[in-house]
Write a structure and sequence with these properties.
The protein has 766 residues and is an alpha+beta fold. It is built from eleven helices and 50 strands. The strands form eleven sheets. An eight-stranded antiparallel sheet has the order 2-3-4-5-20-17-16-13. An eight-stranded parallel sheet has the order 33-32-30-27-23-22-21-34. It has a six-stranded antiparallel sheet with strand order 1-11-12-19-18-14, with no helix packed on it. The protein binds ligand MIG. Residues 261, 289-290, 326, 399-400, 454, 469-470, 503, 528 line the site of ligand MIG.
């Protein structure tokens, strides 16, 4: 029937293309459709989320690392001669019977995404691919941490978590796997999440003469969730509804973080921390990279250079610092080393088929690798953090978890849980982060751990922040890093960062200054560098540059109330902190142009234009609307390209007219005593606007019991009022007054300082 069937398949494997529907039935709210070669199962998750699962042979174990929701248990469809039709209030799936094809439409019948009618879903051996029709004006965004342009049209990608040391703007794959993208065409949007941890492929019209896009994996099921909501933000909301959202991070982790491979002794860590305080450069976090350990053995301290970690931690705490320590998965093979002995005794390591433990070579030497796919192993790992937590460490940096051993390749025959490496590699880092998060959360007893991971799979936002691995100290990498952060945000990863300054190489002083100014507007603001590179701390760049960097870091601390509220918003809606303009200006062609594609919104109000360190004047595209330059209050009309000054002292940052930004006075750490005044900034605009202000103790889980402080702040230009709704929640704000700062208004306020109380407050501003 198919002319392609016997014509020399590439791997001498026959191509099996989904043929005609033979029969179908509804069983337990799952529509099961059979053809000669396969069966498809269709599930409804919500009016805008439908799942299609196609397999040659379905098994009833249906495990996902990513998905935390279940299908609804009510399902209706209509049948016609040619098709089975599923209509939800928001989406229509038309299942073509001969041959079996899946075509999605908006409720009013406009095509959102359709199978290529010729090839649909097919197999070559175990490799399963779905070919889709490509629309003339179709653009694609997503896949998380992927190099290249914002618009992924014309490119193809592979997901295979890799220690991508020295990557560049063409490298693929990198460290993480997020098989979720958003397609946009004809004024319509849709999303698609291929929940499959095998090596997977996405081709956005790169190889098919602009006729088809395609995606698939080396094994497993063609298992995708289709999102039909209109609007990129809505699709992100649905995707994070399905795969989970981050929880409130510890406030301290939003402060400035100073890292290096490595600060070599407790003395050095303390010296750096002290220098921040002496120079009055705000900071919250110090890091210990691998050299704090004894022979790189995880969960140990070096007996000479970190002889008394408790004393070090006490001093750090007195100075208002938190410490994050690195952990790698590789457990050194050495009798007498606790984790090795326990892992052997309890059989916790990944195995060869003959039952021997897999051995790879990493920093400690020969290592075994915990099998994080088993509950008991994750529990053991999570409980092993006490040598760190007992002395007061509350941040845990998970590195090398692609997993990376020297030489990279873990043999395909190595078994994790009941699966072999090719099937689960992409989820290993996520399971390590999960074990770390669950375990340390338990140990820390109601305090929030901070977890940071390099490798990840869809859903990792529930456990951990991520950083983009080993970048390089160049302008190009600064801009690429911003795109990675923006793209990670599309796939639920809101808490993200890059190595400010670049991991490899030595940035110029100008780049270091510029990159720090961009770090202010990065969800995680962390400075990190490779061993052997020049020191990177803010005072290493000359007096004048130190002052600029200091001011930038101070700006970060002023913005913390705004940033913390943006994180709260992300816990509620999945919207990231750093938002590609494609979220708001989806069908504005200009935002996809290479020279503007790095621009992003930081929270609801700020548009940030990253710019190279040697460009002191730059073009910025301001989308429709009115904008103000943050530093000068200069008003600019949007919907056009503007040329603006971009000196190293003033990164181009713009405020959307009508915005509300709560700020605070500079403090030296996020926990330092506040002056008690919330600086409430409002920029004039024509339209009413709202901001949800959120605060809690910043460190515990008491907010889950209602110990938070939340109020909606409204600016109404017609009525000329600023209103604070009554306080929700039982937490006492650390601010007892607001200082109203108006921008772009005429006339002066008679009174600017207002005492805060819990009731509705209405302030007349004109
Ligand atoms: O083989 O721990 O990406 O941030 O400093 C290198 C040393 C291992 C790679 C991480 C980097 C970290 C480094 N690690």
């Amino acid at each position: 029937m198919w002319p392609y069937q016997n014509t020399g398949a590439h791997y001498h494997m026959e191509i099996e293309i989904l043929g005609n529907v033979q029969r179908f039935k509804l069983q337990d709210s799952i529509l099961i459709v059979k053809t000669a070669e396969a069966e498809a199962r269709v599930y409804i998750y919500s009016p805008t989320v439908i799942r299609v699962n196609i397999s040659k042979k379905h098994s009833d174990t249906d495990n996902s690392f990513a998905v935390i929701r279940e299908a609804v248990d009510d399902f209706e469809f209509d049948e016609s001669a040619d098709a089975i039709e599923i209509n939800t209030p928001a989406l229509k799936l038309s299942i073509n019977k001969s041959p079996l094809r899946f075509n999605f439409f908006s409720v009013d019948g406009k095509p959102l995404s359709e199978d290529d009618s010729r090839f649909g879903t097919n197999w070559q051996g175990e490799r399963v691919i779905t070919y889709r029709k490509l629309y003339a004006d179709e653009k694609f965004i997503g896949l998380g941490e992927k190099a290249g342009n914002l618009n992924r049209r014309g490119t193809s990608y592979t997901n295979w978590n890799t220690d991508a040391v020295d990557y560049n703007n063409k490298s693929d794959p990198l460290y993480k796997t997020f098989p979720f993208f958003i397609g946009m065409h004809s004024g319509l949007t849709y999303g698609l999440f291929l929940d499959n941890t095998h090596k997977s492929y996405f081709d956005f019209g790169a190889t098919t003469d602009n006729e088809m896009s395609w995606f698939g994996a080396d094994g497993g099921y063609m298992n995708y969730y289709f999102f039909g909501a209109q609007g990129v933000a809505k699709i992100i909301e649905d995707y994070t509804w399905l795969t989970g959202r981050m929880e409130m991070p510890p406030l301290w982790s939003l402060g400035y973080q100073q890292c290096r491979w490595s600060y070599m002794s407790a003395k050095e860590v303390l010296k750096i921390a002290k220098t921040f305080r002496q120079k009055k450069i705000p900071a919250d976090v110090m890091y210990c990279d691998i050299d704090y350990m004894e022979g790189f053995k995880i969960f140990t301290w070096n007996k000479t250079t970190f002889a008394n970690p408790e004393a070090m931690m006490d001093k750090l705490k007195t100075m208002g610092f938190h410490l994050v320590t690195i952990v790698d998965p590789g457990i050194k093979i050495e009798e007498g080393y606790k984790e090795y002995d326990e892992g052997i005794a309890n059989d916790y390591f990944a195995k060869y088929p003959d039952g021997e433990n897999y051995t790879g070579y990493v920093w400690p030497g020969r290592c075994h690798f915990p099998d994080f796919f088993r509950d008991e192993v994750r529990e053991w790992w999570g409980a092993a953090f006490t040598p760190l937590t007992d002395v007061g460490v509350d941040g845990f940096w998970n590195d090398m978890n692609e997993p990376a051993a020297w030489g990279q390749n873990v043999p395909w025959m190595v078994k994790f849980g009941d699966k072999y490496m090719p099937e689960i590699r992409n989820a290993y880092g996520m399971q390590m982060a999960r074990a770390t998060y669950d375990g340390t959360r338990k140990i820390l007893n109601n305090q929030r751990p901070f977890v940071l991971t390099r490798a990840a799979y869809a859903g990792t936002q529930r456990y951990s922040a991520v950083w983009t691995g080993d970048n390089t100290g160049t302008d190009e990498h600064m801009l690429l890093g911003q795109r990675l952060v923006n793209s990670l945000g599309i796939t639920g990863m809101s808490f993200t960062g890059v190595d400010i300054g670049g991991f490899s190489g030595n940035p110029t002083p100008e780049l270091m200054v510029r990159w720090n100014s961009l770090g202010v507007y990065t969800p995680m603001f962390r400075n990190h560098a490779i061993q052997g590179s020049k020191m990177r701390e803010p005072w290493e760049w000359g007096k004048a540059n130190e002052q600029i960097i200091k001011k930038d870091i101070e700006q970060r601390y002023k913005l913390l109330p705004y940033i913390y509220s943006a994180f709260y918003q992300s816990t509620q809606t999945g919207l990231p902190i750093s938002r590609t303009l494609a979220i708001y200006f989806t069908f504005d062609e200009k935002i996809y142009l290479e020279r503007f594609q790095n621009q992003f919104m930081f929270g609801d109000a700020l548009l940030v234009a990253p710019v190279e360190s040697d460009k002191l004047t730059t073009d910025v595209y301001l989308p429709k609307g009115d904008w103000y330059r943050l530093s000068t209050d200069e008003k600019l009309k949007g919907g056009k390209i503007v040329t603006v000054a971009s000196p190293l002292t003033d990164l181009p940052v713009f405020v959307k007219a009508g915005s509300i930004i709560p700020m605070q006075s500079v403090t030296q750490s996020s926990a330092a005593k506040s002056d008690g005044i919330l600086q409430l900034h409002i920029w004039n605009g024509k339209e009413a606007n709202e901001f949800v202000y959120y605060e809690d103790d910043g460190s515990s889980y008491d907010y889950e019991q209602g110990a938070y402080y939340k109020r909606t702040i409204t600016f109404d230009p017609k009525r000329k009022t600023v209103t604070l709704s009554a306080v929700e929640g039982s937490f006492q704000s650390k601010y007892h007054q607001i200082n109203l700062e108006l921008h772009g208004f005429t006339g002066d306020l008679k009174k600017r300082i207002f005492d805060l109380d819990g009731g509705i407050m209405e302030i007349k501003i004109g």
